[in-house]
Design brief:
Helix content: 25-40%
Largest sheet: 9 strands, mixed
Oligomer: single chain
CATH topology of the largest domain: Spore Coat Polysaccharide Biosynthesis Protein SpsA, Chain A
Strand order of the largest sheet: 4-3-1-5-11-8-12-10-9
CATH architecture of the largest domain: Alpha-Beta Complex
Number of strands: 17
CATH class of the largest domain: Alpha Beta
C-alpha cells in the first residue's frame, strides 16, 4: 500500500517556552514521515510573565511552519465539563479522589479533543515540552498502515527500543521494527503501559472514541486514566517501535506536581528570563542512552558567543 498518512503531533507545555523551543528544533532537525505530512498543535498554559515567552515563541514558530498554538482557558463549569462524563467507567471515583478534577479545571479535555477532531490527519502523536529527538527519525508508511488496519490494537512508540537496558528478550524484530504485546506478563516498565503522552503514535479515530468519556484534566491524568481504560479493555495491545529509541525526555526540571519524577533543578523562572533576552537552550545528548529519560551533566543558555551555565542536576 502507498496511501498517504498524515500525522498530528500534539505537544503539551506549561511555563517552559525555552524547552519547548528546543523540542520543536529537534522535531525540525530529526523527524519526518516516509509518506505524508506532520503538523504540530501546541496546547499550553502559563502563569505570570511566562506568557511573554510564549508570545515570542509564537512569532518564531508560525502556522506556515506547521506549528499552531492553542492556550488553555477557563472551563465552562461542572454541568458542561464534568457531569456528562461523571457516570462513565471510573470517572466518579476519580472525581472524588483527585482534587485537581474538582478545583481549577480548565478546558484542557475539550480543547484537546476539539483540536484532534478538527484535524484531517489519520494519526495522532503526543509529546511534552521536555522531550527531544536525538536520532534521525522516519516513521515508515508500513507502521502507519498497520495502525490504521488495527486502530484499537496497534501503536508506535519512539522512546523505547532494543538499546534500553530493560529491553525484554521477548521483543520480535521484523523489517527494522520491534513488536511486543503490552499484556505479556513477562514484561515490565515502559513495555507494559499501552498509553503514553511521550512520543507514541495512535490512530486518531481510536484515540477519540476511547478518550471521549474519560474525565481527565491535564496531560498526567490523560496518560494515567487512558492507560487504566486501555488495560481494562485490553486496548492497544500491539506495541511497535524502532530498533533503537530516537526520542528521550530531557529532565532538567519538573513543573507538574502529579508525579514525583526524577529531574534536574534548572529554574523555570531563570530560563524564562533568559529566553526573553534572546537566549536558547543548549545541551548534549549522548548517542549511547539506555533509558527513556536523562539529566544532562551540563546545560547552557546561549546567545551568540555568550554561554551561561544553568544548574540542572540535583545532588
Amino acid at each position: 500500500m502507498s496511501d498517504r498518512h498524515d500525522l498530528l503531533i500534539v505537544v503539551f507545555s506549561f511555563n517552559r517556552a525555552m524547552q519547548l523551543d528546543a523540542m520543536l528544533q529537534s522535531v525540525k532537525k530529526h523527524f519526518s514521515l516516509e509518506c505524508g505530512r506532520h503538523s504540530i498543535n501546541v496546547i499550553f498554559h502559563t502563569t505570570g510573565h511566562h506568557a511573554e515567552s510564549y508570545s515570542r515563541l509564537r512569532q518564531k514558530w508560525t502556522e506556515e511552519q506547521g506549528v499552531t498554538f492553542f492556550e488553555r482557558e477557563r472551563g465552562k463549569g461542572f454541568f458542561s465539563d464534568v457531569l456528562p462524563h461523571l457516570f462513565h467507567g471510573r470517572n466518579a471515583f476519580w472525581y472524588a479522589k483527585y482534587p485537581f478534577l474538582r478545583k481549577g479545571r480548565d478546558d484542557f479535555k475539550a480543547l484537546l479533543e476539539h483540536r484532534i477532531e478538527s484535524s484531517n490527519a489519520s494519526h495522532v502523536m503526543f509529546m511534552t515540552d521536555d522531550s527531544a529527538f536525538y536520532r534521525h527519525t522516519i516513521i515508515p508508511s508500513s507502521v502507519l498502515e498497520s495502525i490504521s488496519a488495527r486502530p484499537f490494537e496497534s501503536s508506535y512508540r519512539l522512546y523505547v527500543g532494543a538499546n534500553l537496558r530493560d529491553a525484554p528478550p521477548e521483543l520480535i524484530e521484523s523489517s527494522g521494527i520491534l513488536h511486543w504485546d503490552y499484556y505479556d506478563s513477562r514484561l515490565k516498565h515502559h513495555w507494559v503501559y499501552p498509553f503514553a503522552v511521550d512520543g507514541t503514535v495512535y490512530a486518531r479515530s481510536a484515540f477519540l472514541r476511547t478518550a471521549k468519556h474519560v474525565l481527565y484534566a491535564n496531560p498526567n491524568s490523560l496518560e494515567g486514566f487512558m492507560c487504566f481504560v486501555a488495560i481494562r479493555r485490553r486496548l492497544f495491545n500491539h506495541g511497535m517501535s524502532p530498533v533503537d529509541a530516537t526520542l528521550v525526555g530531557v529532565s532538567i526540571n519538573r513543573v507538574q506536581k502529579v508525579a514525583a519524577n526524577d529531574s534536574g533543578s534548572a529554574d523555570v523562572e531563570l530560563l524564562n528570563d533568559l529566553y526573553l533576552k534572546g537566549y536558547e537552550l543548549d545541551y548534549a545528548i549522548p548517542e549511547n542512552l539506555d533509558w527513556p529519560h536523562f539529566i544532562p551533566g551540563n546545560v547552557f543558555a546561549v546567545r551568540g558567543n555568550e554561554r551561561i551555565e544553568v544548574c540542572c542536576r540535583t545532588p
